[in-house]
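Researcher: Hi, I'm a grad student and pretty new to this. My advisor asked me to get structures for two proteins we've been looking at. I'm not sure of the right format, so I'll just paste the first sequence and hope you can take it from there.
Model: That works fine. Here's the first sequence with its structure tokens right after it:
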Amino acid sequence: MATTVIVSYDGTDNDRDALALARVFARAGAALELAYVRHSADDRTEAPVLTNGENGLPMHVVLSGSTPEGLRELAAERDSPLVVFGSEYRTAKGHVDPQRSARRLIEGGPIAVALAPAGLASNGGFDVRTIGAIGEDGDPCVLETAEVLAAQLGGEVAPRATKDVDLLVVGSKPGAVTGRVTISAAAEYLIELARCPVVVLPRGVALEF
């Protein structure tokens, strides 16, 4: 059975970047589902209208006072290990800046978080050839996830995680609770420097596709 990957999606350009990244995971074997969080029953804001690029993907409208909580609950319900986000509004093209909901899940959440650089959707056919793996104390789940993605996408794991990789897998810091995402200041700095999509893993958890 395919791994379910949830895309935080409201139809903005940044969330189209998230969908562009999620399609990479779909090529690795994942099943994609979109999620839009409505904050109250009185909220009259319409869920995003799906275009030809999104038609055919399941769309969940979640009622929750908190976007990260709503996404976390949906991920648990759908047995999804990964939620994909675009970068913060007005992030410079090609840069990664986690939006507020993504930051909340990176600070102790139970699911992996993928972050798309701003403008990724405008790159056309984004391809992953090289994958970097950064685990501060050699957490084997980081390299295992990178190797699985490389095998599924026909790429390779870079011998060193440099700025030239196409995708970066980052592990949670030593001492973090197993199954929870908590990154160090050094890892946060690497994400700020990244010019490619980033996947942040919970401690001791590898992704399968």
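Researcher: Oh nice, that was easy. Here's the second one.
Model: And its structure:
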Amino acid sequence: MRAGAVDGLVVVGQIGQSLDGRVATRTGHSHYINGAAGLAHLHRLRALVDAVVIGIGSALADDPRLTVRHVAGPAPARVVIDPRGRLAPTARLLADDGARRFVVTTHGAACALSGVETLVFPAIDGHIAPAAILARLAEAGLRRVLIEGGADTILRFLKAGCLDRLHVIVAPIILGGGRPSFTLNPIDSLEDALRPPMRVHPLNGEVLFDCDFSAQRVHIAGAGRSSRDGLERARK
């Protein structure tokens, strides 16, 4: 995928799960479902995008750095969706290491963080519209975006028609319960199932499903074109 077909943006979701479709155990433990190859793929995606986005739940549970460490490449901007201003200034993703840092929040939330760019939106049922977030990131020059987690955040972007691709890495483990990776609305007939075009790639004992959702991607108003190439290389 060398350029966004809809509006110049390229938005990729990435999720790791077990064979039985779980992203964490019943206690919330999720480090690490995927092995070394899956982790390298995630970091390769980070190196190829302009920005990596997570929700506040993942930020609080995992305190991730969102940097590129397992492959060579530049660090993307780091974005956390925090509608109620819960992120602590000591969060590792806010470290002042030269990368741009953004907090996406709502009117009235307390998000005064030093050196951090704040994007403020109206809340809709406690959430911020994914398309609105992407439009503001595009205005900031961030046109290749990785939605890394958690599962609820990825699903909101998918349901809103805001993903071009979804990378699902399946690890050869069975958890037997825990947090599911997909909680879409149930269907009554298999004819109503989502059947995106996809490619399947082995990853040293794990399997990457590269799902193409570009046909349902909505147009992001005001999004310009990006000149950066290379997301296809992330699967090689």
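Researcher: Is there anything I should tell my advisor about the second?
Model: You could mention this: The longest strand covers residues 10-17.
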